[in-house]
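FORM 7B: Structural annotation worksheet

SECTION A. Query
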Amino acid sequence: MSDTTTAPSSPVVLEAWFDLQCPDCFQALGDVRALREKYGDRLDVQLRHFPLAKHKHAYAAAQAAEEAAAQGKGWPYAEALLARTADLADRGEPVLLEVASELGLDAEEFDTALIDGRHLLTVDADEAEGKAIKVTGTPTYVIDGERLDGGRSQDGLRARIEAAVDRLLTA
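SECTION B. Predicted structure
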């Protein structure tokens, strides 16, 4: 899912491999927002799905985020859902529909999308690609083929991403 706030022809792409039930991914949003602010349309932040088995509702959350993207609010939905990781863990899939309604999305279409599985292939493809490039936890970032793992510690991670973006923008 591409960041709709940036130009599709951005010179630098940052893939953010997230699990939408992951509290560490919620913490990482501060870095993502700071990077967007600093680079604007020169950086295309793409949400990639890597639902972890330990998070019971992460797979459904990834599908819901894809439906939100189809309705034009992918990142706002992902951010709102990440802010409710504990609620999602406690109450499950009803939270997915509540967030959709709060953002003015078609909650009935959300429900249908989760039932008919129209976004399964997208989530499965992301997960398979993540495994192929050795993503093991979230958040993980990939920029210019370099994998930066944030699952264990995010200390210094934004600085490393900024250094890579700056290098690519001046190349």
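SECTION C. Observations
Strands lie at 12-18, 43-49, 140-143, 146-149. The first helix runs from residue 23 to 39.

SECTION D. Sign-off
Analyst initials: ____
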